[in-house]
Amino acid sequence: MRRIDPRFVPLLGTIAVFALTAGYGSVAYTGFFSAQVFLNLLIDNAFLCIVGVGMTFVILSGGIDLSVGSVIALTTMVSAELVEHRHWSAAQAIPLVLAIGTAFGALMGWLIQRFRLQPFIVTLAGMFLARGLCYLISIDSISITDATYTAIAQARVPVPGTGASITVGAIVALSTLAVGIWLAQVTEFGRTVYAIGGNEASAVLMGLPVPRTTVLVYTFSGFCSALAGVVFTFYMLSGYGLHAVGMELDAIAAVVIGGTLLSGGVGFVAGTLFGVLILGIIQTLIAFDGSLSSWWTRIVIGALLFVFCLLQRAFEARRR
Amino acid sequence: MEAALGSISRHRLFWPFLTLALLLAANAIFNPGFWQLQWRDGHLYGNVIDILNRAAPLALVALGMTLVIATRGIDISVGAVVAIAAAVAALMIGGELVVKNGVQTQVSRFPMGLAIVAALAVAALCGLWNGLLVAKVGMQPIIATLILMVAGRGVAQLLTGGQIITVYYAPYFFLGNGFLFGLPFAVFIAAAVWGLLHLLMTRTALGLFIQSIGINPAAARVAGLHERLITVCVYVFCGFAAGVAGLVISSNVKSADGNNAGMLMELDAILAVTLGGTALTGGRFSLAGSVLGALIIQTLTSTIYSIGVPPEINMVVKAAVVFVVMLLQSAEFRAALRALVVRPAAGGAP
Known about the structure:
Largest sheet of chain B: 2 strands, antiparallel
Radius of gyration of chain B: 22 Å
Largest sheet of chain A: 2 strands, antiparallel
Distance between the termini of chain B: 30 Å
Shape of chain A: globular
Shape of chain B: globular
CATH topology of chain A: ABC transporter involved in vitamin B12 uptake, BtuC
Distance between the termini of chain A: 24 Å
Oligomer: heterodimer
CATH class of chain A: Mainly Alpha
Strand content of chain A: under 5%
Number of helices of chain B: 15
């Protein structure tokens, strides 16, 4: 029997955990094992999945992006302000907010690359800035009544053969995931990201476009955050400065649980999907149980993060 | 003269001190009554006292964070630890009004001393957990402490049952609201921790050890330092300091809120440490700088409130401050700036 490529071990572990959790839920709770419950995982976590794809690239390159949650909030806020108070159409507002998020990511990437600043502190400042900008627009929640937005939010696309349906947000999430996988596995950009995460100095010596790629990684993460913000706007139908507080940590947790090594260079975008699904299924289990309070979600996610980090350390130690 | 000025401006505390002085001066201009102090009921009252009192918990957290950052680490769980310590103390004290021998007295569930010790022990235990993950397991500090940051808030909510626990035991309020010699008691707590830490760092070799771990952990280990033990101790202290801050905060607001106590405190603490001139890359650190940093942040917040700017701008201003400070700390940025300043001058001279 051929041995499994060690690169796939963390990913397989993640998929196994997901399968076990899903199996447990199906046995323990009636009504859990249905196509709609599993599709709801994707629907309710579409934005997290999109943010996770961007975050995967950042972590693969050995960096971190703490600004994603606040960029989502800023996107919902700008969208709501433009659509509700300035009477822009969705077709005008969405490209603009995507451009804002992308530019925001590019600016942070440039600061990190050009001035050799730590990604952690730059994106932390970016987080403050984006949340602060939300409050400059309004400190209150702005609900969206625009016809296009509500129509997209309520649209359901039936999935053939299951009788269940998914939302536009979930389709956007799956598309982003597909683009992410293509970028990581096929393009020169993806290979450069892996090389930088493996060893930046070697990547420079190999003549790879390290500075450009570093800036692009954060630009892509900024774009993903804005796209997640658009999906989040559909999901919540409002703009609010306190939307998506702590989302950056959920995204990092999803990436780590998805089997991407935090030291960079090892991991798969597809793993992040399973990381997101595991976070989602824990919430669903706790909701199905009914007797557990919502804070158990945070404790279980923390425990899961701990176990996966331990496994990562063991895995790294064995590789050496 | 120029040489003297040059040596002053090269002192590590020059920039944080100048920032604080400018902020205080701006306050004095916008608010003529800023420096006024009043003596009422045996206490000093005034804006400056208020800033000192409110900066005390942040200064405590920043002191612990300084040592962690000096060892090249980071602790983003301090906010959650603040919430946990506050929850433990509030749960154990609780307190209710009972009539004893015809006199109304307040009774705590456990003796207050025991409650405080327990809260601080739990906080130190949180620090121990972080320290073991970093030093023994070898996780990256940001991830190791991320675990507690995520789970810790859940634990705090579990303790408080998702509610805000109110404390009805007057002696406990002294920690965050009491006055000693006319000054807020919280200021004395922060000053005592700072003083002890300062002695420990300057009178023993511990400060040197921590610096050498931050500069080169491998070399420190080869030189015979108990690198791992010291790292664990530093995280334990950081947890302890966050616990003290949690007590002061919960005593000040007379309640414990598992959800919101210490929210975003980790960011303010990191900001205070950075403002104080301790580089995030580890090595040299300055306790006095971090205290100055905490004062700067609190003064900034008070200024924003007092000059009538909407408080929402606070975060944008903080972000701008972080961007400026980190750019000034970057060698690349200073080189670029120097090139920009020098080049036109050089071009102008024939």
